[in-house]
């Protein structure tokens, strides 16, 4: 269990870096983000305005759509301020991946293996590629590698290894088309997921596909820990899909889901919480839990969703 505890301690560094950057945006009197920075919105999947308040966390307000079960932040940051936040954001994400490469390598490989029956080579574009570590692995699979990264410090690292675009996807050169577009822990940050999937479709070769890894609001950890779960960070994770809502979004945008799985059980984190300990710094002993990892994955209760969707 010591290795598992060490992994979570490293990931807590990423959490702490993200949360510390929230403070300047929060109204000290209300504890939530100041009105000048945010705007209300409807459900990002079905556009319903009928929602239930869940909780406030780290400045943000989480709601659940009563019509389709989508979990989302509202009010959400206005585009101007969200772009400002990300452009100057920390580089701890790439540092975390590098320090825990064996774990991330196995997760990246699962995604590439999901795509392998359909896409074994060609051009791959990773949106939000950070320092390009996923693309490093994709290159070994035979792909021609491209990335999009708006964080200045991380893009400087990635562009030394891959062709990089520091712009929105539709601003990429017209002649550049891609067989596979990937987003690793990025799509949940995008306010308008429908628009993003529609924009990506315009840059896909015929029969091309999108691969997403996203946190799952339907996961065991999210359901049990709720506001204590680090999936809910208040500012960055504005859209939290489950299996039902990501399928609905795919269909709405004219995609067919051809691969679906969940990864990362977080069973030991749940066990900590159920043992009255801090979920992320407890003893990490999941032996007493009535459900094991096989059960979690067989029932699509893993912490993150991996989904492959092909444009029809």
Overall description:
The mean pLDDT is 90. The strands form 3 sheets. The protein has a 7-stranded mixed beta sheet with strand order 8-7-6-9-10-13-12, sandwiched between helices. Strands 2-3-4-11 form a 4-stranded antiparallel beta sheet, with no helix packed on it. Helix content is 34%, strand content 23%. α1 (2-20) packs antiparallel against α3 (92-99). The protein is globular and about 55 Å long. β9 (178-184), α7 and β10 (204-215) form a beta-alpha-beta unit. It has helices spanning 2-20, 79-87, 92-99, 101-115, 133-140, 152-158, 193-201, 220-225, 243-252, 267-274, 293-298, and strands spanning 38-39, 51-57, 60-65, 71-73, 76-77, 122-127, 143-148, 163-165, 178-184, 204-215, 239-240, 255-263, 304-311. With 312 residues, the protein is an alpha/beta fold. The termini are far apart. The chain has a single domain, classed as 3-Layer(aba) Sandwich (Rossmann fold).
How would you briefly describe this protein structure?
The longest helix has 19 residues, at 2-20. The strands form 3 sheets. The chain has a 7-stranded mixed sheet with strand order 8-7-6-9-10-13-12, with helices on both faces. Strands 2-3-4-11 form a 4-stranded antiparallel sheet, with no helix packed on it. The chain has a two-stranded antiparallel sheet with strand order 1-5. The model has no long low-confidence stretch (mean pLDDT 90).
CATH superfamily: Vaccinia Virus protein VP39
Overall pLDDT level: 90
Task: Output the number of helix runs.
Answer: 11
User: Percentage of helical residues?
Assistant: 25-40%
Please give the CATH class.
Alpha Beta
Binned strand content: 15-25%
Question: What is the helix/strand order?
Answer: HEEEEEHHHEHEHEEHEHEHEHHE
- Rg estimate, integer Å: 19 Å
Q: Could you name the ranges where pLDDT drops below 50 across 5 or more consecutive residues?
A: none
Q: Give the overall shape.
A: globular
Largest sheet: 7 strands, mixed
Kindly report the spatial arrangement of strands forming the biggest sheet: 8-7-6-9-10-13-12
